[in-house]
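Today's session is about reading a structure prediction critically. Students often jump straight to the picture, but the first step is always the sequence itself: look for stretches that repeat, for charged clusters, for runs of hydrophobic residues. Only then move on to the predicted structure, which in these notes is written as discrete structure tokens rather than atom positions. Here is the chain we will use throughout the hour.
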Amino acid sequence: MRITVFGATGGVGQEIVGQARAAGHEVTVVVRDPDRLPEPLDRAAPHAVVRLDDPAAVRAAVAGRDAVLSGLGSRGRKANGVAERLTGRILTAMEAEGARRLLVVSAVPVGPEPVGDPLVDRLTRRAVGAVLAELYADLARMEAALARSATEWTAVRPPRLTDGPLTGVYRQVVGGTPRGSRSISRADVAHAMLALAVEPAAVRQGVGIAY
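Below is the predicted structure for this chain, in token form.
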């Protein structure tokens, strides 16, 4: 596939680029700051590196791609509208170029609560939701913008992210949330996104993933 990856300096974005290149995909990278591109990815010489603040370059980066994958988001608890704002730039570029397939990282709390979730998981989710309310509100607004767009979007919703290894073994629920969603590695989030890029059932859907 010819894919474009936004947010390649982040944990999930790095994994997407690495796994995509290992699978033989042609990769274009869009980043906020090229100087923050990790050395292993810099040495790997992606097909192209584009700055997110260059609208013309971003449009060119999404034109004719089989899929656009975004790991963009807040780098801390204070979201400041980052996910909504930066995803809006992607949507503007894709709609201008007629690009269709878009996958983004969201979060489990933005999706529906799973039926029959254990009490401890419900209480933990509410406690975390209170602490990270601003971040989840930003992601919810991002998903609303996706729903209003003409793109064939998928919002991948993981729980707590870890730096664990790629396993390729996890649960996912299209349009819902796996029961007992507690954690998943960034590597497996990237794996899921690349797999879902060619999954018709995931189009215009949120997909909950977890171990």
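Discussion point for the tutorial: Residues 88 and 145 are 7 Å apart (CA to CA).
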